[in-house]
Specification:
- There is one protein chain.
- The protein has 3 domains: about 110 residues, Butyryl-Coa Dehydrogenase, subunit A, domain 1, CATH 1.10.540.10; about 110 residues, Beta Barrel (Butyryl-CoA Dehydrogenase, subunit A, domain 2), CATH 2.40.110; about 150 residues, Butyryl-CoA Dehydrogenase, subunit A, domain 3 (Up-down Bundle), CATH 1.20.140.
- About 55% of the residues lie in helices and about 15% in strands.
- The chain contains 12 helices and 10 strands.
- Strand 9 and strand 10 form a beta hairpin.
- It starts with 15 loop residues before the first helix and ends with a helix.
- It binds coenzyme a persulfide (COS).
Length: about 450
């Protein structure tokens, strides 16, 4: 036990002797672990050189291009068009877009590394930059070759945006309760209904829209379609004025007898619900990464402030009440990141990650909320003032517990996966394994 005889007290914080002793103890204990446990299986969490470079690139981008304007964009709810174009230019958007359609074809772990840095810079702007992944995933999973060529390539060739349209005014968590209808008429589908809370909805060039093709079949009557923004009958009705993530665009979109070719169906008719769930398995690790970024930003601001702010004659960091809050923040950031990485790695290995993705989303979102609330507390009264950075983070964090499945829905998925697990989905398993092995073969092939 490293600290068994010397509890960290107010007095020991910052004491060089205590820190040196702890460092020596740590070295001794590490070498003991290595010799005693030499035959243990070790999980290696070291990032590859490429992943480290990518993380650094994303961090520098967040620091130079996002942070300096984040608080102004939040105040005025400014759409970050310039930042979208720059991020696209340097290759920080569409991370998982397959190479066959012009994308970088990165693994999900690389994607979540980018998302954490974007969340650290500004999660509102980060959400705008990352939402293409949500719209593109159903096309990647279920789209025909023609649809992939047309719509995925569009995102790779220009800084264009796409949106995922699942939620409706009366169907949020209860996806099966949606009312939007798609009726097959000859070689077309005709879509009518309203979708709300659509990220990037006002700026998207195309939408992935979920609609009932069999009104009486509950979740087994849903299908998914690609709908171009310029199709007749598509209207952006309203841009929402939000509590947090104010730089991101959130719109209400209506589809009034919108006609799309039958070939715009994604996957099979009436299999759209599963497509949506498979999409969320892929994208929840990413939004959880954004949440880790928010939490990390709040933790960093609070730690710095606690070293500068003097009360009772000493920096508040030397008061145990504050130091322990900082310690808890740090633990939450670390733990959330590990869950996020695990959920991404399982996916990259071609394994089902539903449970891990919900663990990551639930924990990282709740951690972001708790850490940002505590950061405001560390700042005291100043934390409540807009001139200081942390109230924005607290407002931004709230949406993490709501979008891409509330924290309660994540708990529902976790409980079901543990208590009543879904049988293995062989079709999905085969598809993911094929994807992973094709990627490995491509990487192994000589250039
Ligand atoms: N991957 C593949 N299939 C899945 C799946 C997954 N991750 N999760 C569920 N399914 C399948 C089930 O196996 C079941 O299949 P069958 O039709 O063959 O029986 C079907 O989907 C229905 O599953 P379930 O019974 O669990 O559906 P529910 O209606 O109870 O809903 C929840 C499940 C609540 C988890 C789902 O509706 C959900 O995630 N809601 C939140 C939606 C959300 O995140 N909205 C945010 C919008 S995106 S910003």
């Amino acid at each position: 036990m490293l600290f068994s005889k010397r509890w960290l007290t107010d007095q020991s914080i910052g004491s060089q002797t205590a820190i040196n002793r702890a460092t020596e103890d740590a070295k001794r204990s590490r070498s003991r672990d290595l010799t005693e446990g030499s035959n243990r299986t070790v999980v290696d969490l070291t990032l590859t050189d490429e992943q480290q470079d990518l993380r650094e690139l994303a961090h520098n981008f967040a620091e130079k291009e996002i942070r300096p304007v984040a608080w102004d964009y939040d105040r005025d709810a400014t759409w970050p068009q310039e930042i979208v174009e720059k991020a696209w230019e340097v290759g920080l958007m569409n991370a998982e877009l397959p190479e066959a359609y012009g994308g970088p074809g990165l693994d999900l772990l690389s994607g979540v590394l980018i998302e954490e840095e974007m969340g650290w810079g500004c999660s509102g702007i980060g959400t705008s930059l990352m939402a293409n992944g949500l719209a593109a995933a159903p096309v990647i999973i279920g789209g025909s070759e023609e649809l992939k060529k047309q719509y995925l390539t569009m995102l790779a060739e220009e800084p264009k945006l796409a949106s995922f349209c699942l939620t409706e005014p009366d169907a949020g968590s209860d996806v099966g309760g949606m009312k939007t209808r798609a009726q097959k008429q000859g070689d077309k589908y005709v879509i009518s209904g309203s979708k709300c809370f659509i990220t990037n909805g006002s700026h998207a060039s195309w939408y992935t829209v979920y609609a009932k093709t069999d009104a009486d079949a509950g979740h087994r009557g849903i299908s998914a379609f690609v709908v171009p923004r310029d199709a007749d009958g598509v209207t952006v009705d309203k841009k929402e004025d939000k509590l947090g993530q104010r730089a991101s665009d959130t719109a209400l979109i209506s589809f009034d007898e919108v006609e799309v070719p039958a070939g715009n169906l994604l996957g099979e008719e009436n299999k759209g619900f599963k497509l949506a769930m498979m999409t969320l398995d892929r994208t929840r690790p990413g939004v959880s990464g954004l949440a880790v970024g928010i939490a990390r930003a709040a933790f960093e601001f609070a730690s710095e402030y606690s070293k500068e702010r003097v009360q009772f004659g000493v920096p508040i960091a030397t008061h145990q009440a504050v130091a322990f809050m900082i310690a808890d923040m740090a633990t939450k950031v670390e733990a959330a990141r590990l869950l996020v990485w695990q959920s991404a790695v399982l996916h990259d290995q071609g394994r089902r990650n539903t449970l891990a993705a919900s663990h990551a989303k639930r924990f990282a979102a709740d951690a972001a909320m708790e850490v940002t609330v505590d950061a405001v507390q560390v700042y005291g009264g100043y934390g409540f003032i807009k001139e200081y950075p942390v109230e924005k983070l607290m407002r931004d964090a709230k949406i993490m517990q709501l979008y891409e499945g509330t924290s309660q829905i994540q708990r529902l998925v976790i409980a079901r996966e543990i208590l009543n697990p879904r049988p293995p989905d062989t079709e999905l398993q085969t598809r993911q394994e094929t994807e992973v092995s094709e990627k490995a073969q491509k990487e192994a092939a000589p250039a």
